[in-house]
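tool_call: predict_structure(chain=1)
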Amino acid sequence: MKIVSRKSLGLQCVFDIGLEQDHNFLLDNGYIASNCFNKSHSVAYGYVTYQTAYLKANYPVEYMAALLSSVSGDQDKVQRYIANCRNMGIPVVPPDVNSSGEDFTPRGQQILFGLAAIKNLGAGPIAAILQARQESSVFISLADLCSRLDSRSLNKKALEALIQTGALDLLQPNRHQLMSDLDITMEWSSRRAKEQASGQGNIFDFFGESNNTKTFDTAPTTTRVQDYSSQEKLRMEKELLGFYISDHPLSVVSRSAKLMAPINLCDIPESNETKIVTAIALILEIKEVVTKKGDRMAILQLEDLTGSTEAVVFPKTFDKVQHLLEKDKRLMVWGKIDRRDEQTQLIIDDMQPIESVRMVRVELTREQASDRQVLEQLKKALNPNPNYGNTNQNKSSYGKSSYGRHDADESSNKIPVIAAIEYMPKLVRLGNQFWVQDEETAVKALQQAGFKATYDALVT
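tool_result:
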């Protein structure tokens, strides 16, 4: 950039932006020195931030679709942004052969998964699908799709991927039926193409009505079969898309998870937490390892709605939880974040199936929730041992309290206490110092102290 003209403004306050010595932003030849970029650089970033915030606020579906497309090669970021979409009330749904583009596509208040994200569906088949839609019309059935795109453009493996990811659900919602019909439909469409090429087409072909619904009514079908289970559909989506899209095994506990396990797996690398953390997660992979001493341990890949992380189960814990180590098992896990060797891992301390997870619920008025004395009464009811928390006390002298809920090791308390405060729309999770070991005894103790309390299961 070169200065064209100059005008004196007299004496003005000038602020040095980090330069240690005297300086002159103007060079001898009239050009501006590189140091002068600071303020303009900040303005540019501020302007981009404003534009981004405006688009997100006013065009959230289009904005998130573009954001997902921009990080489509990074599976961790895609999963995190899909979770953000769910929190914003924007469903990210399986691809649709009649509406999806190559990338993530906004459709109404939804975002369609892009065709390019489907494994076994290359650039050639995608281009053929988009061209066929543009030149003619939408596909009305599997037979129509196979007739307009021959096996050279769309082979069996690609068609299977479309079916199993839900891309043909609007044509036929029974994915199992589509898979059952695929072979004979492809044979029928190939035979029909040969007949048309030899001039032996049917009357609709003769009048140029090859896309007429009646034409495809003659396509053969197999015996009716029951659709895949929801779990099987999710498994195929995960395998071919890399994500659970139509649903997620943990979606049933998504609200409770925020209370029971407020940390997301995607946040673990940036977390500064040094104490025991809790998470509700799904086991994706299990790798058993035998140590030099001959002890068994395991390395797990865990996933929640926001992302995934690696977790380690050392031998002592492995002996305790090995019966729970199953692929696709939904668990509540307790552990510590470990950052050795420039790698973040979750060191598992304990785990429990989410079906057996319990929470204690106590009802409080607004006055009680803000009264320190009431909270002390609440803590005392849950923990009648006066020496609890005294680090100078010998651990062996603690034992379990008379209520069987607390001992000296705070990490043994696995059941959280949730407060329902009047007029507040959301429940409040009390700190770990309120957590208990036994929900039934804790509820009785709270009731005896004058509190309204119950216990609930995480999954009902």
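agent: The domain at 256-354 is CATH 2.40.50.140 (OB fold (Dihydrolipoamide Acetyltransferase, E2P)). Proceeding to next step.
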